[in-house]
Every structure is written in structure tokens, then in C-alpha cells.
């Protein structure tokens, strides 16, 4: 009759039912919706202990309509279909346990678990278990977005963007909107570690910048421009000039301040 978690939930449900007065009625049962959902399992056997308590609590009010199985009681308490609950609640619980015990990170395991949970949410009926899973999914997405934001700094990643971007980074999904901006942001530190850049490395960086410039409407492009402006002296250190040439170079830079592209900063 279910695994150890379901059996533990069954004992908690029994205690909650026994705490209710005789004839408490349907309203009291609806207050136990979460506990009832936790006991619904694919093995829809009648537990005589629970059946007796349901009859005691509901029988005086509901008569012949009194549910005597956990599944029927859960369907009544949640307003759902019994067959759908049997099919979905165990899967929702499994997904909830998986996410709560998951070490969230940019890994195939983490992204796969989050993907499965989100797909399940789209098909699941409105229950307390579904709400709990939805809250946990939001927490996991927020943590994943935080990690992705650090990886792609200074371009921020929102929780709504986290999963498709994570799939793309791991090679499991198509490029998201603004992919070229994200790729340049992610790889810029690698180029900084190679500074000053050799001609081939500078050529590769310019190619990434050119692609990112084609997505300048993407969120984060302007932040990336400022980041590149900051690290440019490390990437392309200038040779010392005589005072006169330095003065002329400074005057020229003043007239061209604020290049309109990432690639222009690398010229």
C-alpha cells in the first residue's frame, strides 16, 4: 500500500481524522486536502482504518455519499477527478522530492529535473501538491538564474529565462534570444586571462563582438559594452607615446567617445 513516505503520510492522516469530532462534515475534510493528497497512491486499496474514520466524520452528514477510500475522499476535498489524482499525485510527489533533495546547479541532472517538473506542472490538476511543486520550481529557477547571472556577468538572467539558457549552455537546447551577447559575456573573462591578446585571439574576440552587435537590442548589451570598455586596456594595452602624440591621441579619443558597437572598442 505505497512506499514508506506514503505510509508515514497515512499515519498522519489517521491522526488528523481521529482528532475531528463525529459528524464534522465535508468542511472539515476539505481542511485535510493536503494530507489526503499525500496518501493517494497508484494502489487504490481500501484502508479499513481510514474508511472507519471517514464514516465517523462524514457519515452522519453525507450518508450514502460518504467516501470510504482515500482517493474518493481526496477527490471530494479537492474537487478533482479521482482517476486523474491517482495518475498525477504520485508523480507530483516524486518530482517534489527530487527537486527538494537536488543540488541545484548548471548540470544535466539539475536542468533535467527542473524540465520534467515544469512539464508536469502544465498537465497537473490544481491541488495543494501541485502548488507546493510550483513554489519549489520557482525557487530552483531563481537559484539557477543566480548562477547563470554570475557566469554571464554583467548580463542579468531572470528566472523565466534560466531554463532555456541553461539547456543551451549545456548543449541540450537551441540558442535563446540574445545568445551572442550571452556568449561574449561568458567568454570575456577567458580572453582577459590571455591578455594582452595575441592577434588570433583578438580576431576571435572581434568576431564574437560582431555577432553580439547584431543583437544590440538584447537586454544586457549596453552593460556588456561598459564591461568591455573597462577591460579593454588589459586586452589591448597601448604602447607609450611621446607627449605630443599622446595629446593628439587624447583629443581624438574625446571626439570619438562612446563607440556605438562592441567591435568598435576592439579596433
* Rg, alpha carbons: 30 Å
* Uncertain spans: none
Structural class: mainly alpha
Tell me how many strands there are.
0
Order of helices and strands: HHHHHHHHHHHHHH
Overall mean pLDDT score? 89
The biggest sheet amounts to: none
Q: DSSP strand (E) fraction?
A: under 5%
Number of helices: 14
Helicity level? 55-70%
Q: How would you describe the shape?
A: rod-shaped
End-to-end C-alpha gap: 71 Å
Produce a short descriptive summary:
The chain has 267 residues and is an all-alpha fold.
Description of the structure:
By secondary structure, the chain is mainly alpha-helical. It contains 14 helices and no strands. The longest helix is centred in the middle third of the chain and has 24 residues. The radius of gyration is 30 Å and the shape is rod-shaped. The protein starts with a helix and ends with a helix. The mean pLDDT is 89.
Amino acid at each position: 500500500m505505497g512506499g514508506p513516505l506514503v505510509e508515514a503520510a497515512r499515519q498522519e492522516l489517521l491522526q488528523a481524522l481521529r482528532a475531528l469530532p463525529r459528524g464534522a462534515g465535508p468542511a472539515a475534510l476539505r481542511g485535510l486536502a493536503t494530507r489526503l493528497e499525500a496518501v493517494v497512491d497508484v494502489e487504490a486499496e481500501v484502508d479499513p482504518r481510514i474508511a472507519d474514520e471517514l464514516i465517523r466524520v462524514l457519515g452522519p452528514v453525507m450518508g450514502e455519499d460518504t467516501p470510504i477510500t482515500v482517493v474518493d475522499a481526496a477527490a471530494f476535498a479537492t474537487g478533482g477527478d479521482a482517476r486523474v489524482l491517482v495518475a498525477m499525485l504520485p508523480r507530483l510527489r516524486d518530482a517534489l522530492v527530487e527537486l527538494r533533495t537536488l543540488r541545484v546547479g548548471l548540470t544535466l541532472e539539475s536542468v533535467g529535473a527542473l524540465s520534467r517538473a515544469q512539464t508536469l506542472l502544465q498537465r497537473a490538476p490544481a491541488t495543494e501538491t501541485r502548488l507546493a511543486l510550483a513554489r519549489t520550481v520557482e525557487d530552483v529557477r531563481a537559484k539557477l538564474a543566480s548562477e547563470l547571472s554570475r557566469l554571464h556577468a554583467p548580463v542579468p538572467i531572470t528566472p523565466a529565462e534560466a531554463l532555456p539558457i541553461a539547456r543551451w549552455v549545456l548543449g541540450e537546447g537551441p540558442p535563446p534570444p540574445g545568445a551572442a551577447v550571452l556568449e561574449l559575456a561568458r567568454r570575456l573573462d577567458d580572453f582577459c586571462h590571455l591578455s594582452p591578446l595575441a592577434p588570433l585571439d583578438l580576431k576571435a574576440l572581434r568576431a564574437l563582438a560582431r555577432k553580439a552587435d547584431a543583437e544590440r537590442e538584447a537586454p544586457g548589451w549596453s552593460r556588456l559594452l561598459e564591461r568591455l570598455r573597462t577591460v579593454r586596456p588589459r586586452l589591448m594595452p597601448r604602447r607609450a607615446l611621446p607627449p605630443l602624440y599622446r595629446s593628439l591621441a587624447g583629443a581624438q579619443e574625446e571626439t570619438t567617445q562612446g563607440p556605438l558597437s562592441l567591435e568598435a572598442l576592439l579596433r
